[in-house]
Structures are given as structure tokens and as C-alpha cells.
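Q: My labmate handed me this sequence with no annotations at all. I'd like to see what the chain might look like in three dimensions before we decide whether it's worth expressing. Could you predict it?
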Amino acid sequence: MSAGTGRSAQTRLRRSLGLHGAVAVGVGGTIGGGIFVLVGQTAAQAGPAALLSFALAFVASLVIALPYAELACRYPQAGGGYAFVREVLGRRWGFLMGWVFWGSYVFVSGYVTLGFGGYLHELTGVPPVVGAVALVLVCVAVNVRGVEVAGRVQVLVICLAIAGLLGFAEAGTHAIQLARLTPWAPNGLQGILTGALTAFLAFGGFDMVAAAGEEIAEPDKNLPRAIFITLAIVLCVYLLVAFTALGTVDWRTLGASSAPLSEAAQRFLGDLGGRFVAVIAVVTTAATANAVLVVTSRISFAMARDGLLPSRLARVQPKTGTPLCAVLLSGILLVMMAVLGSPASATAIGGFLYVLHFIPPLLVLLQLRRVKSASPAFKTPMPKILLPLAFAMTLLLLAASGTKGIAGGVVWLVTGIAVMWLRRGPASRETVH
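A: Here is what I predict for the chain of 433 residues:
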């Protein structure tokens, strides 16, 4: 029996999120701390050719997103990649996939919420950790009202954030000097490729759409559209913002700055520009934190519904259609990351786990293609070319994660294996099907 059948109303989520809300979840999860930090890091690696690095990162994201969109159409269920793997490879693989997926966003949340706290501190003087914790609590309160309410809030916040970032690009147009874009690639092809690996992390988040698949109306149509619209919007915003930053600040200065966009804004708007960017950062990272809470709670909900985590996490509130306990647990974990974590460790470990979680779904799609299962509404084009490319890109990104990311990711994996062993039973010993 499919995991999507035979469920009671108490463990089913409502399809109340339309295309606009689904795109807002994806864009909100993608445009976050990356645009404010990774622009500088990519510039340090690639120079002005960071623009090309972002374009290459978009291509890599698209190659991985195509098979992900096909799987999302096949299995429009809560948990995204976890649901794909659980349905095809069985409970053990499903648990490990869900654990990695869950952990990636739990760790990344520390980078997002502390980034929010840092920018809020610049504006108000509130301690960064206090601001980070307050943000999580607000996101929990919004999500307790239901995903439809959260989706409307997300749409509003993301529209404001995109408008602000585009305003940054527009305001800096008069100060752009094309001479700053030479030499174009000071570190050669290697610098461009290294920059592309860094920029890929800034595109992370499109998979959040699939994670909320059970709550998206008309998933066959809206899921792939939302994923591709998310990537297209993010690419346009990144290129415009990066072009403005690189055209107004020397790439070396931009790469050495801890707040590259504030550095750029101060050049053409003065101190007011730095505060303007801080406001945009606060709004954008708040939207990202909300999207992270949505996806983490839906992953734990899906795993609990399948008996892989405590059943309490699978309970849905009748009035709001919200998995309340899963939302509260995710809120607690996000608070812990904000209080105990650091942006550097959160990014390294979360990045490793995030890249790792794409591999099992790719294996799932290979399995489905071999058995020639029913065709979904959307199919990956040129699979003999794109699927090997997707595998190669994920392996390359894993190798570039660094010692801290790999070590932390392995610790999280070992912890998950221990949890799975402790919860072993007849269901856990189900053979892979």
C-alpha cells in the first residue's frame, strides 16, 4: 500500500497552498543569508566572473531540480525527498533520507536565524541571539495558525524582500563602473568553478516546495511550476544584485567584507544605504526562517506518520490542518541552534547534509525508470544525459564541503542510525522493496 493511501483525516494535510504560496515558500527558502554573504565569498574566488559562477550554479541547480520535480509529481506528499525514498526504497532508506533532510535544515537554520539576529542588532541594538530566538517564536506562532496563513505571510514578506533587493540594484545603477569588472577572471577557470560551488549553496531551497507537496493544490501542475519559477526568480535577483555590488565595489574589497551588500550600499547611499540593506536582510532572513520551519516540521511529521518517529508528531489539528507537535518540536530545535550554534558550523554541516540528501532521490528515479512505472505529469528530459550530470554535481559538491562539514555530517548520520536501531521492531525490519 502506498504511504499516501489509507490515512485518516487526523494524519492528512490540507491542500490549501496555491501556486503563489508554493513559490513564496521556495523563494523564501532560497533568497536568504546567501545573497548577503555568499556574493562576497564568490567574488573573492572568481572576481567579477562571479556573475558567471552564479549562472553556472543555476545550471547545476536546474539539473538537480528537474528529476526532483518529476519525483514531486509522482509523490506529492509531506516530506519531499523523504517521501520519494520511503515509497520506493523502503523504511530504512526512508528513515536515513528523512534524518539527513531534517538535519540539513535544522543546522542551516542556525545560519539563517543568527544572520537575522546580526542584522537586527545593527538596526536596534538587540543582542543577536535574542533576536534569533524571537524570530523562531514568531514563525512558530504564524505556522500554528496553519500553512495557508503562513503562505499568505510568506507571499507578503517575499514581495517586500524582492522589491527591496531590486531597489538596491536600481539605486546603485548610477554608481556602476564597468572598469571594475576587469580583469574579468583574475583566478582563471578554477576560480570560476570554485565560485560556482559556493554560489550553489545560495540556490538551496527549491526543494522546500516538494517538502510541502501534500499541502499544495493541484500538485501535478503547481509543483514543477513552483520549483522552476523559484529558480528563475532567484537567478534574476542574484545576477542583478551581484552586478550592482561588483560594479560599485572592487571585487577584492567585496570579497574581504563580512557584509558585502552593506559595503556596496554605503558607496552610493552612504550610511543610510547600510541601514537600508540591514532592513532588507532582516525581512529576507525572516522569510527564510519561516520556510525552514515549514519544511523541518513537515519532514518530522511525515516520518512520524510512517512510524519512524514518535506518533505524537503525526497529529494534525482539526481546525487548522497543522501538525502542531511537529511545528513545536522544530521550533525547539531551531531555538537550540540559535542559542548553541554558530553561523560557520551551521553552514558547513548543513551544507554537507543538504547536498547529501539529493543522492537518494536520484537513486529512486533511476529505480523507477528501470521498472518503467506509470508516467507522471512531468518527466525529466534527456535522462541519459541529465541524471549522470546530477550525480556528478552532487559528488563534486560533497567533496568541496570541507573537513568540518563532513565530520559534523557523519556525526549526525551516526546519531540517526542509533535512533533507528533503538526504535527497531517488526516494522523497522521490513525488507527493502
